[in-house]
Amino acid sequence: MVRYPKRVIFPKGNQRKFLEKVKNNLGLTIKEVAGVAGVHERTLTDWKREKLSMSLPALKKLCQKANISLPKKIEIRNPFWAAKFSASAGGMAVYKKYGNVGGDPAYRKRKWFEWWEKEGRYREDLITARIQPLQEPGVSTELAEFIGILLGDGGITSSQVTVSLNRVDDRDYLSYLRILIQDLFKLNPSVKEREKEGVINLIVSRTELVRFLVKMGLQVGNKVKHQVDVPCWIKESEAFTKSCLRGLFDTDGCFYVDRHHWRDKLYCNAGMDFTNRSLPLVKFFKVNLTKLGFHLTQTGKFRVRLRREGEIVSYFRKVGSSNPKHVKKFRRYLQRCYGEDIHKIVSGLPEKQITNQEFL
Fold first, then answer.
1. What's this model's pTM, rounded to 2 decimal places?
2. 141-357 CATH, one of 3.30.40.10, 3.40.50.300, 3.30.450.40, 3.10.28.10
3. Tens digits of per-residue pLDDT, 56-104?
4. Is 163 helix (H, G, I), strand (E, B) or coil?
5. What is the CA angle 200-247-282, rounded to 5?
6. What CA–CA distance (Å, rounded) separates 193 from 208?
């Protein structure tokens, strides 16, 4: 059975006359003629009114049953032959009644070009897309930090790389990440806020970037399910390891201050927690900070903690932080505890940390 049969076009008035002839020759009712044609009674009524054109298979059935030859003055056309004319007529009717539909066409054109420059030109799934070659950076401390960020709050699909941050607390950190991605790959990531979830996403839609990151040791898909680990080339270098630790803690770490009273006196104690659902990452964080002389406590299957104040200060000296959220909390804590003596405590921090993170 043909799903969309060809149509028969009669001269005006002849389709009605043909059906009347079939009905009279067979001595049947309209409903019975419809049964012979294999259509609903309402369809046959529309054919008789010449509201719709007949199908070619129905015409042949009726001719065979009524023992009459096929009409000569007919035209056989493909199904949906009238669609483009109907669409055009409908479009003109809407235009005459409402004018331009969809708002100002100049505004739509401008917004399309903005989207094209930011995202569309990089998408391989678009026929007209022109993929620019990806700048593949060599191994570096910056790339190691970026990989630590992705292992913390990042996500990788087959065509997209995303970093999800807190839309309030990490907004300043977002600016740092955008510059880092631009410096590494010469790409401009897009930013999308999910206000209800309290999340802001930094997104790069480039298949070539995904391929590069996989080549560098990362995996596409669910990080917890895969129980991802830090790439070997990072583990083989102390400098790369420190940078990766910084990226991990800046995304999945937390600097906090415990406050408690004892005999009417307020005591404050600093703490640092790192939490991740991938056990190899928790192990990497604990083992490598231990190698650097830190004493961490395993407080859960997925969490390690640093509580010695001197070692927390040392962490910011040796590893540092690129997330202003952590840096500001750390600085406020030292100022409350030591006042102007903060200058002595933070002296010796790397110049980059002092300048970029405004410790002084």
1. 0.60
2. 3.10.28.10
3. 888 888 988 888 888 888 888 887 766 666 677 777 777 777 766 666 7
4. strand
5. 105
6. 25
